Structures are given as C-alpha cells and as structure tokens.
Amino acid sequence: MKLSIDPVLAIELSEIFAWQIDFYTIQSGDKFKAIYEEKYIGDKYVGIGRVYAACFNHNKKDFYAFIFEQEEGKREYFDENGLSLSKAFLKAPVRFSRISSRFTSRRFHPILKRYRSHYGIDYVASIGTPVQSVGDGKVAEAGYKGAEGRYVRIKHNGTYSSMYMHLSRFGQSITSGANVKQGQTIGYVGSSGFSTGPHLDFRFYINGQPVNYLVQEFPSTHPVKDELKAHYEGVKNVLQLRLDSLSIPLNKEIVAVK
After folding, report:
1. How far is the C-alpha of 91 from the C-alpha of 150, rounded, in Å?
2. What is residue 246's predicted lDDT score, i.e. its pLDDT?
3. In angstroms, rounded to a whole number, what is the distance separating the alpha carbons of residues 169 and 188?
4. CATH for 7-86+220-245, among 2.170.130.30, 3.30.70.1650, 3.10.450.350, 1.10.510.10?
5. Rounded CA separation 187/149 (Å)
6. Angular region, 215: left φ>0, alpha ψ -120 to 50, beta rest
7. CB of 30 closer than 8 Å to CB of 253
8. Which pLDDT value is given to residue 115?
C-alpha cells in the first residue's frame, strides 16, 4: 500500500466513472481506492497500466467499477450489479467552475429585470471551453437567436433532446442534419445572446418537455450477458473483497495498491 499516486490515475478514473460522477464537482472528502497495474522498465517507473477495479466515494456514496471482458479483446467496466458503467448521457456537457443558475420556474433575470422561468442549467466556464454533446444524436438546429445567442439543438432519439446556448462558435462540421457522437465537441462556451458573462445554458428535454438534468437517472446501456453472469460474479467478488479490505488512512483521500 502506498500514498504516492500517479496523477494519470485520476484521469483514468474520470473516464471510467464519466457517466456516474461529475468530476467537475468533486468535493473535499471525496476519495477512491483502486487496483491497477504499474509499468516499469527495469527499476524505472514509466506509468500506470490497466485499472482492474475501483471504488469512488462521492458525496458519501460508493461507486464501483470492475473490469470484465464480455467479448474477445473488448474490456469494459461494470458495477457491482453487473450493469455497464456506460450510459446514454454524460453527467455534464462542459468543464465548468460553478453552476450559476439551476432549473427553476422562477428566477430573476439579470438582463430583463423580472422573474421568469429558467428551465436549464447555467454552467460558468471560460470563453472557448469546449462544449460536448451529452449523447449520440443528430443536430436538429444550429443557428442564432436573439435571447439564446448562438445555439445547437440535438435530437438524441424519439424521446430525448438537448440544447446548448450562448456559444461563441460552433464545433467543426456542426450544422443542421449532422450526426454527433457522445462527447463530441459541438461548440465552445461564449456569451452570445442575452448573457451577462461567459457560460453555457444547457437544457434537456424528455418528450419535448424541459426537465432538470441534474436529477435524472439514466439507464445503463447494457448489462453483463446472461451466459457470463456467473463468471462475472466470480471475478467481481474477488476484486470487491480486495477493495473493501483497504482502509483510507486518516486525513488521506487516496489509497492505491500495486
């Protein structure tokens, strides 16, 4: 056991848990435990290898990840219930410093100077910060309106759609009708339209109705196959026992094992 951690491990974990944890809102007291490889050339450390399992405690809730090869040559991460960590939508569309306005039916508008609904999430970020599509889909609109400024609306399927407003510019090849993938840059943070400073006004819709994205629980994309569940349980149980046997030292937020 040791406490010197390669910062690349944090990047790896942010990718593994990208659908479960919003890593732009990590708080003091959040912590993780991980089982992973370390690579050496002779006695010289050259980096980390595969992450076999991890437990990330965020907001006092444990999130587990266990590596498993469901198809030959394709390793994925699943939770303790055998559900894929991959989900249809990301936790956040942009790297932000804070949320300035949340989903509400009554907010005092800083420009119009009156109360009105705000059915979106305002993520404060620097101008030029990349904005990602939260899911696969097709660009339904990419244009400019007075209040919204430069915006992109994406239809993900017959049920879900999302909108990204006050952009400074569009991403490459982002025009109406373009297909986009989850995590693809569709624009950049700006302050176009009715805006008092650089931020992203992000909106999400279910069957055409705006919903609070921050409280949505989206389903896993797929579980472990039925014929492999017994095998997965065996692999998971060994890794989970090892993870759970590790303790977090007092005043430390990280434990890793070699």
Report:
1. 23
2. 82
3. 6
4. 3.10.450.350
5. 12
6. alpha
7. yes
8. 54
**Residues in the chain with pLDDT values less than 70:** 1-4, 105-117, 248-258
* Cβ–Cβ under 8 Å, residues 152 and 163: yes
99 touches 121 (CB < 8 A): yes
- Residue 156: is it exposed, middle or buried by C-beta count within 10 angstroms (0-12/13-18/19+)? buried
Contact 148, 136 (CB under 8 A): no
Q: Based on the number of CB atoms within 10 Å of its own CB, is 211 exposed (0-12), middle (13-18) or buried (19 or more)?
A: middle
8 Å CB contact between 110 and 155:
no
Considering only CA atoms, give the Rg of the chain: 21
98-215 fold: Glucose Permease (Domain IIA) (2.70.70)
b (16+ CB within 10 A) / e for 212-241 = ebeeeeeebeebbeeebeeebeebbeebbe
Give me 221's structure tokens. Answer: 């994309």
